[in-house]
Amino acid sequence: QVHLVESGGGLAQAGGSLRLSCAASGFTLDYGRIGWFRQVPGGEREGISCFRNSFGATSYADSVKGRFTISSDGAKNILYLQMNSLKPEDTAVYYCALGAYETDCLQPRYAYWGQGIEVTVSS
C-alpha cells in the first residue's frame, strides 16, 4: 500500500524559505511522474513542480520558476520541494503526488496523494 506523508510546512515570512519533504512508503520513488501541488480554499489544485520522466526532467509552474526546486533522495525514498523567496500568494495547502496519469505531469491527475501540509507566508 502506498503512503505519502508531507512534512516541513508551517509559517514563513515573505522572502524566506521552507523545504517540504514527502516520505514515500510502499513504492520506490523514481523520477517518473512524481510532483508537488498546492491548493487554496475554494480554489483548484495547482501543479507546482514535477519530474516528468525517469531521466530527471522537471517541469515548473510559471508562478514558482526560479524560486522553487524539486529534488528527490532515492536512498531515503523522499521527495523534496525547496521553496525560496516566498511570497504571501504561496500560502496554500501543499500536496505531493505519485503516479501521474497525464503526459503533462503538472496536471493534477495522479494515482496517489499525500494528506497535504499547510504553508503560510506572512507579508
Spell out the key features of this protein.
globular; mainly beta; four-stranded antiparallel sheet; 123 residues; 11 strands
Note down, in words, how this protein is organized.
By secondary structure, this protein is mostly beta strands. It has strands spanning 3-7, 10-13, 18-25, 34-39, 46-51, 58-60, 68-73, 78-83, 92-100, 110-113, 117-122. Strands 2, 4, 5, 6, 9, 10 and 11 form a seven-stranded mixed β-sheet that branches. A four-stranded antiparallel β-sheet has the order 1-3-8-7, with no helix packed on it. The chain is globular. The protein starts with a strand and ends with a strand.
How do you describe this structure in short?
It contains no helices and 11 strands.
Instruction: Compute the separation of the termini in Å.
Output: 40 Å
State the shape.
globular
Q: Structural class of the helix and strand makeup?
A: mainly beta
Uncertain stretches of 5 or more adjacent residues: none
Radius of gyration: 13 Å
- Strand fraction equals over 45%
- Oligomeric status: single chain
Count helical runs.
Answer: 0
What's the rounded overall pLDDT mean?
A: 93
Sheet bearing the most strands, described? 7 strands, mixed
Q: Can you give the helix content as a percent range?
A: under 10%
Strands, count: 11
